[in-house]
Design goal:
Helix content is 47%, strand content 8%. It has helices at 9-24, 37-49, 63-76, 79-88, 101-118, 131-140, 144-147, 184-191, 206-214; strands at 154-158, 164-166, 177-181, 201-204.
Length: 219
Amino acid sequence: MSNPEEAGPVRRERLLLAAALEEAGPEAATRCAGWDARDLAAHLVVRERRPDAAPGVLLPPLSRYTERVRTRTARSVPFGRLVERFRQGPPKFSPFAVPGVDEIANAVEFFVHHEDVRRARPGWEPRDISPELEELIWRRIRIARFVLRKVPVGVTLVQPDGRTLRVTGRGRGDRGAVRVHGPVGELALWALGRRDVAGVRLTGDTGAVKRLTEAGWSL
């Protein structure tokens, strides 16, 4: 088994997520709505090893097929084997094995799912993440534009260092706009629907904040 401390930031997060799944056990709850650890492990494996099913993760018209493949995988493959397949990484035929794709596609995915496992367990605390992983997540947090595309207000993400990213175009100007403040990892968790466990602070027009908190989204 690789040593997480000797790996790059995304590989390190893969190894830590695999270890968290292993420690939690197959029936452990996660913050990924409706999924236990077995479901989550099956999702991670199908995403990297079933190119025919992976598009349904993001494309609703294909999601039913993806879910059938994921459910079948969760039922037919022992949990320990699922975790080990994920830990090993994508096979050579997978698009995820192309050099450079790991950083582009997996920084946010692995961080959020690692926290899905961690923050479903009693006594969890926020953890420090490396500056390298933070920077990768910030570069890829633009996925929030897809996730939040239907929210009824404008949303800008704000880092502690002052860097900002506008992720929705609605509500231009002060009225109808909300600023979401927090560390990069917490912003990613909030944007991807883990609002109940994300350490962020919302500022802006009172009505806009209310509309945003009443909206629903997830990925």
